[in-house]
Amino acid sequence: MIDTAGLTMRELREIDLLDPSTFVDYDLTSLWRTMRREAPVYRHPRGFWVLTRYADVVSVYKDPTRFGSDGGNVLSTLTAGGDSAAGSMLAVTDGAGHRRMRAALVDALRPRTMSALAERLRARALELVRRMASGEPFDFAAEVAERLSMGTICDLMGVPEGDRAQLLEWNKEALSSDTRGATESDALLARAEILTYLTEVVQERRESAGTDVVSELIAHRPDDGRPLTDEEIVYNCYSLLIGGDESSRMSAICGVLAFCARPDAWRRVRAGDVSIESTVEEVLRWATPAMHVGRRARRAVDFRGQRIDEGDVVTLWNISANRDETVFQAPDTFDPARQPNRHLAFGYGPHFCVGAQLGRLELGILLEALRASVEEMALAREPKRVYSNFLFGYSALPVVFS
Ligand code: HEM
């Protein structure tokens, strides 16, 4: 991995932030630090704006009237000309349409649903972790994280056990491939498979409703009385699947990796010197699974002395904002006791992650299970990074729990 600390500003400017391999080949910690200091609002040679300071990222998040999500909210769709789900999926819809769908999702993910889910999640986490705490090397990503995150979101959506392995494979192909050079068409194909699968699930639930989130979305009656269409339900279930599986899986894996590197920090958590709540927040800040989000400028804007034109793509790098030294003390130190910790791992403003409560719950339950069964954790071999310009994380994490 190339350390960007030794590179000149000119060399840094040429690093291709669109190419998924960049995020595997380079350690970008120094790049972000230099950008925050010297070029915080920077036009990348591939034609999009790169914002790296916490305050700038927050100000764009807060301003959907000037920076819209309906042209897409990640680089891959924004640079391809738009997102086909615009207007039908929460994350890529603004204004009244967004408020209408968001109310439906908030209702479907309400605390009562969460507390019923937590019981099952707790039992699953305890069992998975206990089984692995034998002193033998194993892959935490495959044996624990995948089962926990996919299991949880599938429980919530009422997806049968037998379909989960296939969904996980498609999800990985769509977003977290660990193969260099996997093409965008492979990802598109996997996304199409997931959408077809979810369309069938929605049809089934229309015929026979259950107590799951899909049935809740079908039954939801917004204030305007107009129920969600099948297309809206399918796209939003797809969002739940991505958020519920991918981002949660990556944060769990990054958390265990962080503790492998800092056994002293794990001892403090184990001893109860640090709360699970603050540990969860620091793991999220440290991992920042959604490295960036994107917006499109609705009109020309003067931003910190730069002219952003109408239609320009603006990327907000959460992964840099979460290490901004003007907001976080010793930002490059993993400190589970960190207070305050106003990280941007879940975004900010009107599109703030609707599954944040579930993401936190999953991570907290996993940490409690680890605390109950694992005295020490250590890396057994090098972990394997995913190839993505959006998702930060690993597809394999060989470890030993004792
Ligand atoms: C939105 C991150 C877990 C569903 C977002 C956004 C971020 C994010 C950064 C903002 C996107 C934007 O502004 O364009 C994460 C992380 C998670 C996580 C790091 C786990 C640790 C979840 C879970 C679910 C979920 C568990 C579903 C149950 C969504 C949805 C949106 C969203 C539907 C769109 C919200 C909107 O546009 O109003 N997430 N997420 N996420 N997330 Fe999550």
UniProtKB/TrEMBL annotation:
Superkingdom of origin: Bacteria
Keywords, in A-Z order: Heme, Iron, Metal-binding, Monooxygenase, Oxidoreductase
PROSITE patterns: CYTOCHROME_P450
Keyword Iron: yes
Keyword Heme: yes
Family, as annotated: Belongs to the cytochrome P450 family.
Protein name stated in the entry: Cytochrome P450
Lineage, top ranks: Bacteria, Bacillati, Actinomycetota, Actinomycetes, Streptosporangiales
